[in-house]
């Protein structure tokens, strides 16, 4: 079979129509010969310029937007040919953001774990009990951070393959939230965590581990995006929606601008604010939280404001009450 090498630029140059390839910011990536002849220029000179500085009116220009092309070769005993695959620039950007965020998120706690372990090994006979306890606490906290990241990454890959194995059972929300708060108190020693539970709140029907993962993400964010000493409060109550329990996670932090509220649940999305610049995060937490809550038959709402310095955010989740029969059975057992 005759071998043909496909060259996108060569093909585009043969076409008797002006063709422009532009990126997401409308910057010209490539212009074919026909287009260049209209402007008496060449592709190198025009590359990087703004589309609208050059777009001739009613010229029937073909604009290829957001795509780059990847050429890969297929070669075996019988056939040999090239594929021309469109690669979405946006996907490439998401992918490279992902790699840099995850490497950063992994490297920071690992460096600190290795550093403190090294110090302890090298000077274990010179350290006193208080110092040893301090170093071990840091090692434990940084390991917790790694575990949270790995769990979030595993959840995302499960979401992507549409596979989930939730184990539903009747769970007391307050006692699970108290466990989460004990872990976070060590991590954020200057933030008071307050848990309030109304009387007669029934158990919820959820996967216990996933419920903890949801609460860790929401309460960790509440502390992370607040200033020192900012109170993080969690309120558990019966929801106005029948057969649902409402859990509100409130903070007095930086808040989120109204135009960004829709984006925070998207994968790998971190909203620019002076605390996101200072704090670590993968932009996966809320994406996973929303997905898990919906898989458990619940809903999540957010209210936030940036008008005052400490206006803060409220994330409310609604989760279904464990079935009436299991409730009445529990009451009889009590
Ligand atoms: P991250 O790992 O960046 O914390 P999340 O998915 O948990 O990722 O959150 C996405 C973005 O939403 C964060 O980067 C932050 O900008 C914003 N955000 C989440 N929770 C809060 C909060 N309680 N207060 C202010 N901003 C928040």
Which stretches are poorly predicted, pLDDT < 50 over at least 5 residues? Answer: 1-5
- Please tally the helical runs, counting DSSP H or I stretches of 4 or more residues: 11
Summarize the biggest pleated sheet. Answer: 5 strands, mixed
Coarse shape: extended
Helical content band: 40-55%
Order of helices and strands: HEEHHHEEEHHEHEEHEEHHEEH
Mind explaining what this structure looks like?
The structure is a single chain. With 334 residues, the protein is α+β, with helices and mostly antiparallel strands. 43% of the residues lie in helices and 21% in strands. It is built from 11 helices and 12 strands. It has helices at residues 8-14, 33-38, 43-46, 51-54, 89-122, 129-160, 173-187, 208-224, 274-278, 285-295, 324-333; strands at 19-22, 28-31, 62-65, 67-75, 80-88, 168-171, 193-197, 204-207, 232-238, 244-250, 299-304, 313-320. A 5-stranded mixed sheet has the order 7-9-10-12-11. It has a 3-stranded mixed sheet with strand order 2-1-3. It has a two-stranded antiparallel sheet with strand order 4-5. The protein starts with 7 loop residues before the first helix and ends with a helix. The structure holds adenosine-5'-diphosphate (ADP). Residues 217, 221-222, 225, 251, 253-256, 264, 269-271, 273, 276, 281-287, 313 line the site of adenosine-5'-diphosphate (ADP).
């Amino acid at each position: 079979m005759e071998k043909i090498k496909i060259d996108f630029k060569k093909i585009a140059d043969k076409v008797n129509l002006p063709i422009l390839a532009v990126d997401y910011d409308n910057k010209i990536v490539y212009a074919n010969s026909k287009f260049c002849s209209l402007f008496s220029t060449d592709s190198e000179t025009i590359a990087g310029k703004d589309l609208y500085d050059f777009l001739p009116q009613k010229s029937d220009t073909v604009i290829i937007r957001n795509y780059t092309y990847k050429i890969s070769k297929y070669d075996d005993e019988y056939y040999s040919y090239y594929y021309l695959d469109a690669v979405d620039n946006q996907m490439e950007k998401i992918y490279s953001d992902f790699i840099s965020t995850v490497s950063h998120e992994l490297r920071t706690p690992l460096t600190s774990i290795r550093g403190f372990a090294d110090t302890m090994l090298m000077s274990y006979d010179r350290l006193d009990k208080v110092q040893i306890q301090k170093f071990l606490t840091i090692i434990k906290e940084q390991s917790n951070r790694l575990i949270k990241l790995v769990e979030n990454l595993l959840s995302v890959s499960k979401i992507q393959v549409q596979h989930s194995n939730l184990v539903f059972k009747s769970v007391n929300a307050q006692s699970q939230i108290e466990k989460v708060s004990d872990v976070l108190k060590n991590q954020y020693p200057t933030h008071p965590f307050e848990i309030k539970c109304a009387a007669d709140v029934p158990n919820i029907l959820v996967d216990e581990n996933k419920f903890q993962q949801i609460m860790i993400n929401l309460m960790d964010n509440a502390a992370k995006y607040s200033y020192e000493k900012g109170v993080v409060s969690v309120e558990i109550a019966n929801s106005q929606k029948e057969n649902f329990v409402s859990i509100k996670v409130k903070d007095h932090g930086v808040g989120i601008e109204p135009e960004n509220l829709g984006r925070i649940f998207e994968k790998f999305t971190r909203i620019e604010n002076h605390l996101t610049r200072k704090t670590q995060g993968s932009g996966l937490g809320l994406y996973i939280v929303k997905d898990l809550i919906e898989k458990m038959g619940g809903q999540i709402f957010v209210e936030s404001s940036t008008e005052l310095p400490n206006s803060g955010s409220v994330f409310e989740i609604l989760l279904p009450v464990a079935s009436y029969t299991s409730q009445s059975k529990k009451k009889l057992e009590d």
